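Re: weekly structure request thread

Next one in the queue (354 aa):
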Amino acid sequence: MSSRREFLKNLAGATMGIMFVNCGLANAAGSFQQAGGKVKRRVVVVAGRHMKTIDVHGHCFVPEIWEHIKDFKEAQPLKQFVDGPQAPKLNVNTLEFRLQQMDEWGIDIQAVSTAPEYNYWAERDLARRIVQIQNHKIAELCAAHSDRFVGIGTVAMQHPDLAAEQMEEGAKKLGLRGFEIGGSINGEELGSLIFIHPAGFAEGEKRFEGKGRLDNLIGNPLETTVALSHLIFEGTLDRFPGLKICAAHGGGFLPSYSGRSDRCFGDPQSCKTGQKRPSEYLKQIYYDSLLFTNEGMRHMIAEVGASQIVLGTDYPFGWESDAVGYILGVPGLSDDQKKAILSSNAAKLLRISS
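Done, posted below.
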C-alpha cells in the first residue's frame, strides 16, 4: 500500500503539471439481421470456431452523480451526458441501446468505464462521494449481467492516498477489473488493468480553435502520447514492471513515431531515459484497436506485436462502428493474431475465462 501511495503522489504531481491519458468461411463474421423487432446477435467466427469477442473501450455515465456536482462550473461539460443526444446510450441504467449495439457489432463482452470526464477538480469529500457512486453503479451493472460486462472503475487522482484506497476497494470488494484514469496510476500490487484515456489537451485549446474538432481529433491522442512518454522517460515502467497499462486510441501518436524517441535515448544529458530504448517499452504496454486503417494496424503490429492489441469501439461515440469487421478484414493477419486481438489478449488483462 505504501509504495502504491508513493507512486500515486509522484504521478499525480506530474499529471497536474502537464495536464495529461483460411479460407472460405473460416474467417467470416456471422450475419446479423432484425428479427421480431430485435437485433439477432452477430456470431464471430475465426478458423471455424466462435470467438468470445471482448471490447475494452466502452463508456457509460452514472447520472446519480449529477445532483452532487451540478452547481460547480467545472462540472458543466458533463451536462451533455445528462440530457444530450448521447445520454440515453451512455446512461449506465439504460441497457436497451447498449446490448442491441453489442449484439449487432458482434461484441460478446464489454469493459464498461465512465465517460472521460474525471472530476479531478473536486475536493476530497466530494471526490470520495463521486467515485463511490460511480464504482458501485458500474459494479451493480456487471453483477446483474456478468455474461456481458466487466467493470472499469475510476479513482480520484487529485488525492493520491484516497485514490489508492478507492482502487483497493474497487478491486477487492466490488470486483472491478481495472481503473480508468486521465494520466497514470499504479495497479501493480492488485494486478488491475490501468486504462489511460485522454480528456483533451488543455495546453492546445487556443490552437485547436476552428473547424475539425481538433481538441478531440488531435488533442486526445496527443494527451495519451505525452502520458506514455512520461512513463517511459521518467523510469516509471522500470520501477513498476508489473503494471498492466492499456492506452486508448491506439496509444496516440507515439507508436507511429517511436524512432524519434529512440534517437533521444543516446543523449543522456537532455533525455532522462530508462534502462531500455523507448520503443522497447512500447512492447510492454497494451493498445486498443482504434487505428481505422489496415496500414495503421499493420504498423502497430510491426512495432509492438499483436499480443499487445485489444479490441476497442469507443462506444457510444461512433468512432468505430464495425471494430470486429475491421480486425477480420486486415490483410495478412493470421488466425492466431485475429484471435488474440478480438479475444485472448483482453481476456488475460481483464481476467475473463474463455
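The chain is about 40% helix and 10% strand. Confidence is low (pLDDT under 50) at residues 9-36.
Next request, please.
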